[in-house]
Amino acid sequence: MKGERRVYDSEDSASRAAAELFCERAAETIARADRFVVALTGGSTPRKMYRLLGQEPYRSRVQWERIDFFWSDERAVPPEHADSNFRIANEGFLAPLAVPPGRIHRMPAEREDLDQAARDYQAEMVRVLGGDLDGAPPQFDWLLLGMGSDGHVASLFPGSPALQEEQRWVVGNPGPGGKGQRMTFTLPLLNRGKEVVFLVAGADKGAAIAALERGEDLPAQRIAPQGPLIWILDQSAASL
């Protein structure tokens, strides 16, 4: 299992640790580079972190207008849908903090042509971050990721076609078991990250964490960013 492990006694304390790390990195990067570019994740675990960011003492520690927010994956649903990864973050802290709309770059995964939508999202990254569509992927300052009980990361599931993608940064991809459609970052983009942080909580993740420790080839095992890789775990996820 690659990276640094930080284990906390509860999901609440792990969420606070993730919120604290986010605020620290945002302040450091904005002081140095005048902005902070992040990719958020969905799922159940980050909800508490997002709510914390919208409250004191965290909300006043960050210059929210200097952060660009992207998403590492999204379900093929409208942004107001209950399953939308965007909605989780928007309701948790983006809307309450009135983050400028121009800083919020959500995945348009509800579009009928998901392949073109993924290409357009890649073009949006170039517009915001610079670079070349045919060149190396951009580098995010901070990527927050979760992990499913099957070891998936973003919407890269075991056996996903997108796990083999070596050129494109964003693609459409089938959901687990081929059910539904997703849009997801690919490994070339995820592994360019300046820092990747996994936030994983719950006993249902314990078997996958143990499998990673044994070196099994789960999608999460393939995350190897150019910068630090940090695992923030609660005791239940680390129990095995």
Q: Can you describe this structure?
A:
- The structure is a single chain.
- The protein is of the alpha/beta class and about 240 residues long.
- The chain is built from 6 helices and 9 strands, in the order E-H-E-H-E-E-H-H-E-E-E-H-E-H-E.
- The two termini are about 15 Å apart.
- About 45% of the residues are buried.
Topology of this protein?
Elements: E1 4-8, H1 11-33, E2 36-40, H2 46-53, E3 67-71, E4 73-75, H3 85-94, H4 114-129, E5 142-145, E6 170-174, E7 181-185, H5 187-190, E8 196-200, H6 206-213, E9 229-234
Parallel strand pairs: 1-9, 2-3, 2-5, 5-8, 8-9
Antiparallel strand pairs: 4-7, 6-7
Helix pairs in contact: 1-2, 2-3
* CATH secondary-structure class: Alpha Beta
Count of alpha and pi helical runs:
6
- Strand order of the biggest β-sheet: 1-9-8-5-2-3
The percent range for strand residues is 15-25%
- Overall 3D geometry? globular
Q: What is the mean predicted local confidence, pLDDT?
A: 96
Instruction: Give the number of domains.
Output: 1
Name the structural class.
alpha/beta
Largest sheet: 6 strands, parallel
Low-confidence stretches: none
Number of strands: 9
The CATH architecture category equals 3-Layer(aba) Sandwich
Following the backbone from N to C, one meets helices and strands in this order, namely EHEHEEHHEEEHEHE
Give Rg in angstroms: 17 Å
